[in-house]
């Protein structure tokens, strides 16, 4: 089994995807449509997008290990993989301690969950793991097709590639705003970064790990931090920032456009497609 993600994909909250949006993005050349948030274990939302498209890959980013039963998830995986060969990538992860009352021993949870997926024959090459820090990146490299880091920079991508080696998929997400005015762009991007991510322990630790000072992270994030985490400018400006991930070792870059919803997203993704492809 081989799932080809393409060079660039699109991230959108799973409950906000529409078949029409997925179809149009496929026509523009994007390789993978990622269902963000915590899609349910029945994978019905992914199935809907698979039905609406012809060849694009549909991925989850991510199914939450704390809320999705692994047995049900495995059965759903096989249903989609059988019906749409090489077109579905199962992304799983553990979410955030602040958002789960039962969150404990995250490393053990990851390994136990992957054990259950193994038992139910979900292939290593058909699944990816949300990973930021070195320990979980190593698990992603050893037990899945690769890592899907979220809210990162090319510097993190470079370090992750060095850690996991050359033969593991690496697909970081990056937010973008198609706006040339710095203040307007930051006013759009900052709320998406500040709440909830700058209040979550794992993201704060990761940002410190890759070189940001505490004052960059506190109080809504410094302009430097927001500009790094939310690329803005023209389509050409943004494409340079996205391509920097590929140059740093990414195989696939997941784009999340901010400031618009539903089919309003299409003009921005079309503008990016003209310079990315």
UniProtKB/TrEMBL annotation:
EC number: 1.-.-.-
GO molecular function: oxidoreductase activity
Domain Luciferase-like: 20-109
One of the Pfam families matching this protein, by short name: Bac_luciferase
Domain of life: Bacteria
Keyword terms of this UniProt record: Oxidoreductase
UniProt cross-references to InterPro entries, sorted A to Z: Bact_Lucif_Oxidored, Lucif-like_OxRdatse_MSMEG_4141, Luciferase-like_dom, Luciferase-like_sf
NCBIfam families (alphabetical): F420_MSMEG_4141
Protein name, as recorded: LLM class F420-dependent oxidoreductase
């Amino acid at each position: 089994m081989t799932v080809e993600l393409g060079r660039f994909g699109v991230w959108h909250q799973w409950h906000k995807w529409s078949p029409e949006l997925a179809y149009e993005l496929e026509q523009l050349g994007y390789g993978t449509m990622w269902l963000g948030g915590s899609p349910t274990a029945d994978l019905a939302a992914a199935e809907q997008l698979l039905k609406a498209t012809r060849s694009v890959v549909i991925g989850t980013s991510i199914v939450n290990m704390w809320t999705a039963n692994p047995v049900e998830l495995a059965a759903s995986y096989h249903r989609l993989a059988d019906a749409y060969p090489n077109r579905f990538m199962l992304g799983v992860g553990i979410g955030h301690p602040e958002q789960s009352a039962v969150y404990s021993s995250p490393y053990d949870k990851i390994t136990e969950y992957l054990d259950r997926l193994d038992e139910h024959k979900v292939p290593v090459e058909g699944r990816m793991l949300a990973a930021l820090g070195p320990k979980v990146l190593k698990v992603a490299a050893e037990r899945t097709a690769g890592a899907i880091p979220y809210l990162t920079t090319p510097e993190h991508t470079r370090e992750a590639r060095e850690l996991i080696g050359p033969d593991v998929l690496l697909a970081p997400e990056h937010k973008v705003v198609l706006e040339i005015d710095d203040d307007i762009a930051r006013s759009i991007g900052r709320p998406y970064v500040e709440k909830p991510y700058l209040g979550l322990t794992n993201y704060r630790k990761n940002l410190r790990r890759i070189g940001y000072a505490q004052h960059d992270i506190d109080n809504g994030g410094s302009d430097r931090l927001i500009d790094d985490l939310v690329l803005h400018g023209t389509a050409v400006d943004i494409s340079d920032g996205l391509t920097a991930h590929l140059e740093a070792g990414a195989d696939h870059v997941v784009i999340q456009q901010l400031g618009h919803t539903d089919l309003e997203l299409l003009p921005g993704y079309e503008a990016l497609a003209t310079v990315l492809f």
